[in-house]
């Protein structure tokens, strides 16, 4: 177990290094640089060079790369060019908005979709199944920016619920408003994610129910409830856990659409802003944090596998 | 008797002031600036927030675009137009408590005219090039000596980059939290969310401002802005409102929609130094092929003003050239045929659009559709992000056709700069601009500027598609909203909330 974890840790470090290096390279290759973007319509070659010098961007790329690593190894992710503030502060701000949205909506989505998916699988082919599956399909195809706007219109404009349409300017220093501002984004993400998960759970349970061991369990006279909850569900959970893990990492960035609609300063919007500004320290920082999350979540998923499926062992 | 009337009026006014004082106003803006000191970066958004609200200069431009006193009470210009003497307001304090005096002005303009931008961190030193010296005979007098007369000198002093901060203030601090003398203090920049201003209790004009607090909220998405306004989370959509949302809000009595011509021209630029647009026949063909009325109707639902050169109707010395090229597709095809393009050999070029600008993007797409309709033109639309656009199209002039809004007032002089991304090199225009700038006679100066507008239209340098509308909306209880203003800033000092 410990040697397995050590190996995983080494792989994780290599992943982080590779991801950040690739991103650094990509930012060098794509057109545009922070100085000319800051100068905007005031940009000309001479002034760009002057601002680059002021921002320390005139150093050769290799030197900047090594300097960044020297800092990162000591836990200093540098300073954002676009925001003139520490990268760490900006990422923490982004995560403080995005993490609650992602965690709560995945939690809610699981709570909604597992019972519905199991129900649909048990009554496969019935009107109930058709109803649930169709609703799920609808939830998948409806774009979340549209759903978000409809939620705003329905809950805030029509029903006049005391929910803000955007994150308060004081952020978490205004905790009540900040929390309320996350309600509709969480609902929006929950809707699209549970739609996906319902179909996953249904398919997975259906497949397990056709397995030999389920037939055996039924043949030896076990009650259907026991067959389902003791034998089938635990096995059906494997692919669902994998998808949940993937969804989590993906949503950290992919929530950007919902963040735009609801004016949330989350990690998705931050990464978009960082890339648009060619703010390489900020982009690098986000990529490292994101890669770290992905590695961590994958590790948790793998460990869950061992728990769920006795055939998997990391000893 | 008059005295009694005066006192009655005074008391009445006082009552009105007392009633309308206070409250928080939240204003939605489309983009978040990188810095908040206009001397350190260009960008219309910086000025919208801080100009005259936080940072002030010697003079300012009011909503009508007139140059009026700000930190200077009055000024005198010598007969030679070479010496400007400003008398400063006394007793003015910066938001950090330091007193404002002539030394701050001298420090500011010595920094502004420093050609070494790496040292000064100041953009556009070239516009201050004519300043030979700036001195302070005493603490409330400043004298500028110019190397040659400059018709635009007061205009230059009214620019956002000419605003003045405390001389001891570090640029790095001023950049993220500007300190000035305006009616509002800059309190905080919440990255990714917004900016907060609060009333400057020590403002030198008594009773102003009315509002306690102003929040600028960055909401990039037009639909999100509309939702926030209807839900009551914001009070104002300040600019770049989507025309279809304007129509929705215009039907709702709770809101007021404002629109008008500002100083922004949507310029479809053609690279005059490169094929195919180095041929004046091709450029003229483009002018005849564009139906500007239809463009305004279809892309902007009627919001927008037809123009024919690089100037908006509200600006001084405006020459109406909107009918210079009447829509005439046959004429366009004929000119293109002369240049060697026809149905067998159509004119093909790339039209670069910057993704971040909603107005320009839709105008560009509609324009491309009109050109394609000729049957002898094939437009290849390429959408890039602003970072790519600024480096490729703007700095390196590596483009054929592109479109962007030029927001700054009085920016026609850019056509006299052959290195600008239009790559238009006309000695005649350069001469006319020099005449405009250097002449001591306002009439002669104005005539030169009009002739310059005409010459630009004749040479068909760019397609001036329209003067973009200053389009926004506010809740009906917001009073004195400046609306379609010709000032670079959203002037907030006299805005109040009706009770």
Task: Describe this structure as you would to a colleague.
The complex is a heterodimer of chains A (315) and B (499). The longest helix of chain A has 36 residues, at 87-122. Chain A is 77% helix and 1% strand. The model of chain A has no long low-confidence stretch (mean pLDDT 87). In chain A, helix 6 packs across helix 8 and helix 12 (267-276) packs antiparallel against helix 13 (280-308). In chain A, strands 1-2 form a two-stranded antiparallel sheet. Chain A has helices spanning 2-29, 34-39, 45-55, 61-73, 87-122, 127-141, 144-158, 175-209, 212-219, 224-254, 256-261, 267-276, 280-308; strands spanning 79-80, 85-86. In chain A, a hairpin with a 4-residue loop joins strand 1 (79-80) and strand 2. Chain A is built from 13 helices and 2 strands. By secondary structure, chain A is mainly α. The N and C termini of chain A lie close together (5 Å). With 499 residues, chain B is of the alpha+beta class. In chain B, 31% of the residues lie in helices and 22% in strands. Chain B has helices spanning 2-20, 44-50, 102-113, 117-120, 153-157, 171-176, 222-231, 243-250, 280-289, 292-300, 329-338, 358-372, 386-395, 427-438, 442-458; strands at residues 24-29, 59-61, 67-69, 72-77, 83-88, 131-138, 141-146, 184-190, 194-199, 213-218, 236-237, 255-258, 261-270, 347-354, 377-384, 401-406, 462-469, 472-475, 478-479, 496-497. In chain B, the strands form 5 sheets. Chain B has a 7-stranded mixed β-sheet, sandwiched between helices. The two termini of chain B are 33 Å apart. Classes of the chains: A mainly alpha (315), B alpha+beta (499).
């Amino acid at each position: 177990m410990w040697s397995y974890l050590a190996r995983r840790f080494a792989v994780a470090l290599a992943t982080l290094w590779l991801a950040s290096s690739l991103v650094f390279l990509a930012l060098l290759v794509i057109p545009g640089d922070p100085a000319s973007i800051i100068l905007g319509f005031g940009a000309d070659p001479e002034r760009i060079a002057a601002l680059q010098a002021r921002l320390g961007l005139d150093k050769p790329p290799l030197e900047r790369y090594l300097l960044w690593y020297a800092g990162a190894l000591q836990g200093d992710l540098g300073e954002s060019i676009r925001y003139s503030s520490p990268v760490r502060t900006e990422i923490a701000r982004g995560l403080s908005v995005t993490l609650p949205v992602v965690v709560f909506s995945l939690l809610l989505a699981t709570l909604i979709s597992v019972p519905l998916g199991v129900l649909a699988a048990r009554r496969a082919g019935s009107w109930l199944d058709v109803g649930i599956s169709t609703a799920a399909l609808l939830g998948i195809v409806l774009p979340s920016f549209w759903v978000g706007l409809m939620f705003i219109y329905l809950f805030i404009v029509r029903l006049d619920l005391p929910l803000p349409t955007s994150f308060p300017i004081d952020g978490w220093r205004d905790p009540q408003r900040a929390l309320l501002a996350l309600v509709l984004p969480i609902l929006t993400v929950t809707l699209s994610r549970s739609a996906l998960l319902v179909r996953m759970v249904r398919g997975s349970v259906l497949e397990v129910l056709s397995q030999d061991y389920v037939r055996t369990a039924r043949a030896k006279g076990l009650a259907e409830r026991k067959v389902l909850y003791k034998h089938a569900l635990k096995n059906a959970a494997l692919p669902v856990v994998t998808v949940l893990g993937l969804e989590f990492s993906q949503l950290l960035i992919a929530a950007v659409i919902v963040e735009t609609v609801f004016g949330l300063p989350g990690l998705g919007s931050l990464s978009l802003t960082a890339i648009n500004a060619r703010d390489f320290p900020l982009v690098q920082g986000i990529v490292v944090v994101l890669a770290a999350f992905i590695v961590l979540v994958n590790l948790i998923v793998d460990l869950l596998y061992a728990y769920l499926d006795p055939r998997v062992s990391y000893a | 008797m008059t005295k009694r009337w005066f006192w009655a009026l005074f008391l009445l006014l006082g009552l009105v002031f007392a009633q309308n004082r206070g409250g928080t106003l939240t204003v939605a803006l489309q983009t978040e600036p990188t810095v908040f000191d206009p001397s350190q970066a260009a960008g219309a958004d910086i000025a919208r927030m801080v100009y005259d609200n936080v940072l002030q200069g010697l003079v300012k431009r009011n909503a009508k675009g007139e140059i009026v006193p700000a930190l200077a009470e009055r000024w005198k210009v010598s007969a030679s137009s070479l010496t400007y003497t400003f008398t400063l307001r006394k007793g003015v304090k910066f938001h950090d408590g330091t007193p404002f005096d002539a030394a701050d002005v001298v420090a500011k303009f010595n920094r502004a005219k420093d050609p070494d931008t790496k040292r000064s961190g100041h953009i556009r030193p070239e516009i201050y090039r004519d300043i030979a010296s700036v001195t302070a005979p005493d603490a409330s007098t400043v004298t500028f000596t110019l190397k040659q007369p400059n018709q635009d000198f007061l205009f230059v002093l009214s620019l956002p980059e000419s605003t003045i901060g405390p001389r001891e203030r570090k640029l790095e601090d001023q950049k993220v939290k500007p300190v000035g003398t305006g009616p509002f203090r800059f309190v905080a920049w919440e990255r990714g969310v917004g900016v907060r201003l609060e009333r400057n209790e020590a403002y030198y004009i008594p009773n102003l401002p009315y509002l306690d607090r102003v929040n600028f909220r960055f909401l990039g998405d037009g639909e999100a802005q509309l939702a926030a306004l209807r839900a009551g989370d914001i009070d104002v959509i300040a600019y770049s409102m989507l025309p279809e949302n304007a129509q929705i809000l215009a039907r709702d009595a709770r809101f007021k929609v404002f629109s008008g011509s500002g100083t922004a021209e949507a310029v479809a630029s053609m690279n005059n130094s490169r094929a195919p647009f180095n041929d004046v026949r091709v450029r003229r063909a483009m002018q005849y092929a564009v139906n500007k009325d239809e463009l305004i109707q279809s892309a902007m639902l009627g919001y927008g003003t037809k123009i024919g050169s690089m100037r908006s109707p509200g600006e001084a010395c405006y020459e109406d050239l909107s009918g210079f090229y009447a829509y005439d597709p046959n004429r366009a095809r004929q000119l293109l045929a002369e240049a060697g393009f026809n149905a067998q050999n159509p004119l093909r070029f790339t039209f670069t659009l910057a993704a971040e600008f909603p107005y320009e993007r839709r105008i560009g797409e509609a324009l491309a559709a009109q050109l394609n309709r000729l049957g002898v033109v094939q437009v290849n639309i390429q959408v890039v992000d602003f970072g790519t656009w600024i480096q490729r199209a703007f700095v390196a002039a590596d483009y054929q056709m592109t479109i962007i809004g030029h927001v700054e007032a009085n920016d026609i002089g850019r056509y006299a700069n052959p290195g600008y991304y239009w790559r238009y090199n006309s000695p005649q225009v350069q001469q006319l601009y020099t005449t405009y700038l250097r002449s001591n006679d306002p009439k002669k100066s104005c005539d030169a500027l009009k002739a310059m507008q005409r010459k630009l239209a004749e040479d068909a340098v760019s397609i001036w598609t329209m003067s973009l509308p200053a389009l926004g909306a506010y809740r009906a209880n917001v009073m004195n909203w400046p609306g379609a203003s010709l000032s670079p800033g959203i002037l907030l000092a006299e805005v109040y909330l009706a009770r």
